[in-house]
């Protein structure tokens, strides 16, 4: 599944790092840059080098201008540790003794129930095995029907439990230029691409069309979540793997398999490779576009009054807790028409990715940003350093 799901059950409160989402989500593209292995929420030398004599408030304002796509603007502030008015504390207290216990119990029950369903449907059924990995993407018949239908239903119930009682969905319809005329309207797109804001994105996509995601190989070994990710048909990748295919090669192969076999699940990719605050769209990695297949763009938005479901500058445990404390959460989804690449875009994956990105930004009223994961790491490290200095001064 996605690294977002890992973040919910890992030893440190997160199943995987946010940037991989999708990592489990990440689009698995080839950006040509070496990957930075530093943890997102740990102070580092990059932040130290950026330190100056400015006051904390001035420095914070400067950071927020420079790293705008990752800045939280909700009532809980940066890192979810802002000063709250008394009324907000009262609401949190009420939710803590009413909503949170119920939601935790029901949420755990739903996960365990779906685990048992997946375990039952995979009994005496041989999984795909390749390079030490296994999945059930090829599952067919009644097993597949049960896994998909119960998975979609329980995912929607889980969203309801988290406070997403209503999901506003809209479908845009417009004519592309000649080079994008759809050759076959009945053809199913093999890839769904979406902006990435929160681990909640995964739950929505599971409830909507139950696609496969990209996940770290370690996700397959997680209790409960492991078998669920295998039934999703997740593509497992490993950074240190010496496989000649690479992430992009694995994705391209899987997308082509889905094109040839309509029984295979579609691939769901987050080409930004990390999460934002929902107002921006980062550069796209090319992994979702190398197969030259049509893509289905989906835009997610989380309107909020008090707490933003966006997962940035806040730990996994704190984020889940505050999300559970909200009486109502909102999600808006914009479905765009299937995007068929032109001949030029087929030959140039970067052009293909950029054109889809521009379309999504226009239709979703999102701001295009040129910064990426490296800048996000610097921003998080700087915030942590400021937090440590503040704690020492108290």
Automatic annotation (TrEMBL):
Residues 1-60 are annotated as: Disordered. It comes from Phoenix dactylifera. Signal peptide: none annotated. The lineage of its organism: Eukaryota, Viridiplantae, Streptophyta, Embryophyta, Tracheophyta. Keywords: Acyltransferase, Lipid biosynthesis, Lipid metabolism, Membrane, Phospholipid biosynthesis, Phospholipid metabolism, Transferase, Transmembrane, Transmembrane helix. The keyword Amino-acid biosynthesis does not apply. This is Lysophospholipid acyltransferase LPEAT1-like isoform X2. Its main location: membrane. The chain crosses the membrane at residues 89-117, 146-167.
């Amino acid at each position: 599944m996605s690294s977002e799901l890992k973040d919910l059950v890992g030893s440190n409160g997160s199943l995987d790092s946010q940037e991989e989402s999708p990592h489990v989500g990440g689009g698995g593209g080839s950006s040509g840059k070496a990957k930075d292995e530093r943890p997102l929420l740990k102070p580092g030398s990059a932040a130290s080098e950026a330190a100056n004599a400015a006051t904390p408030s001035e420095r914070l304002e400067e950071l927020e201008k420079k790293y705008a796509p990752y800045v939280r603007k909700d009532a809980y502030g940066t890192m979810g540790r802002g000063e709250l008015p008394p009324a907000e504390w009262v609401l949190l207290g009420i939710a803590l003794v009413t909503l949170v216990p119920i939601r935790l119990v029901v949420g755990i029950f739903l996960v365990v129930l779906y685990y048992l369903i997946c375990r039952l449907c995979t009994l005496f059924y041989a999984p795909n095995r390749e390079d030490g990995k296994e999945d059930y993407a090829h599952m067919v018949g009644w097993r597949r029907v049960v896994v998909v239908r119960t998975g979609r239903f329980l995912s929607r119930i889980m969203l309801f439990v988290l406070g997403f009682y209503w999901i506003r969905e809209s479908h845009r319809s417009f004519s592309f230029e000649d080079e994008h005329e759809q050759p076959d309207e009945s053809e199913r797109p093999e890839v769904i691409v979406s902006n990435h804001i929160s681990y909640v994105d995964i739950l929505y996509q599971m409830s909507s069309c139950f696609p496969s995601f990209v996940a770290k190989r370690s996700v397959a070994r997680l209790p409960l979540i492991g078998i669920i990710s295998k039934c999703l048909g997740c593509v497992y990748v490993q950074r240190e793997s010496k496989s000649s295919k690479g992430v992009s090669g694995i994705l391209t192969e899987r997308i082509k398999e889905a094109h040839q076999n309509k029984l295979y699940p579609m691939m769901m990719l987050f080409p930004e490779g990390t999460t934002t605050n929902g107002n921006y769209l980062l550069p796209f990695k090319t992994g979702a576009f190398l197969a030259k297949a049509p893509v289905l763009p989906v835009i997610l938005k989380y309107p909020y009054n008090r707490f933003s479901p966006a997962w940035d500058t806040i730990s996994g445990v704190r984020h889940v807790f505050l999300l559970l404390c909200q009486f109502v959460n909102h999600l808006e989804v914009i479905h765009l028409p299937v995007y068929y690449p032109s001949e030029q875009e087929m030959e140039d994956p970067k052009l293909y990715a950029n054109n889809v990105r521009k379309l999504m930004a226009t239709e979703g009223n999102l701001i295009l940003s040129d910064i990426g994961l490296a800048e996000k790491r610097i921003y998080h490290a700087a915030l942590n350093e400021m937090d440590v200095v503040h704690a020492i001064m108290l």
